[in-house]
């Protein structure tokens, strides 16, 4: 009886998390370069069907095994141990958004896979697909939050006396001054072995995780100047996912109410006897 209550309650909690992910996607539909998140679930037995093994080199490793092969010490497996659904993970959809023309020559869009690298004053590094850049008071190319765009040799600084700034297709930043034209650096672009596992830090910033792997420099990248990649969130798709999650939540809620009523009747019947 209580097994049904646990399953229904866990289903409601999972759908609440799904709705949070979907809502966040819809809130960023107009955010340049935003990549939508996709949530996934699994059954509770996925957590139980794992045992720790110590390898020959002395390191403890988690290994997935079949339930029938687990050391239950004489107990026989007679069915599934999945008592509930759990929120497994949410991953990033790396499908590129639509690229649109802008009036800002410092707006940039990456052709293909890869991410811009940004750093703050404390030296922390972040990654993003958002290419809406401007200049700060010190002549640094920065994002809307003031984080500095990184080139292959460090932060890209054009100085305070630039008459014109252009970024060519290979990512070179060309600055025209009164007496000369010079290349101050090349925009650095990085990619990851599994970019779907990058963590959204907030403010459209991404940080690497153990699953995503470390950042690797992308060679021969093409960068479109005066162009801006939009969000890859599709409102119709997200609304359909929201309706689906709400209906599943309502179904689980009704199941929970039914099990609760049956439990109450059972307790009343036994108390009379």
Task: Describe the secondary-structure layout.
Blueprint: H1 2-27, E1 37-43, H2 45-48, E2 50-54, E3 60-64, E4 85-92, E5 99-101, E6 108-111, E7 115-119, E8 125-128, E9 134-135, E10 141-142, E11 148-151, E12 154-155, E13 164-167, E14 172-176, E15 181-186, E16 189-191, E17 199-202, E18 205-207, E19 216-217, E20 222-225, E21 227-229, H3 235-272
Antiparallel strand pairs: 1-4, 2-3, 5-21, 6-20, 7-8, 7-11, 7-16, 9-10, 11-12, 13-14, 14-15, 16-19, 17-18
Which whole number gives the mean pLDDT?
82
Q: Poorly predicted ranges (pLDDT <50, ≥5 residues)?
A: 45-54, 64-68, 72-78
Order of helices and strands: HEHEEEEEEEEEEEEEEEEEEEEH
- Radius of gyration, in angstroms, nearest whole number: 26 Å
The major β-sheet equals:
6 strands, antiparallel
Alpha-carbon distance between the two ends: 20 Å
Task: Assign the structural class, choosing from mainly alpha, mainly beta, alpha/beta, alpha+beta, or little secondary structure.
Answer: alpha+beta
Number of domains: 2
Give the % helix. Answer: 10-25%
Alpha plus pi helix count: 3
Q: How much of the residues is beta strand, in percent?
A: 25-35%
The outline comes out as elongated
How many beta strands in the DSSP annotation? 21
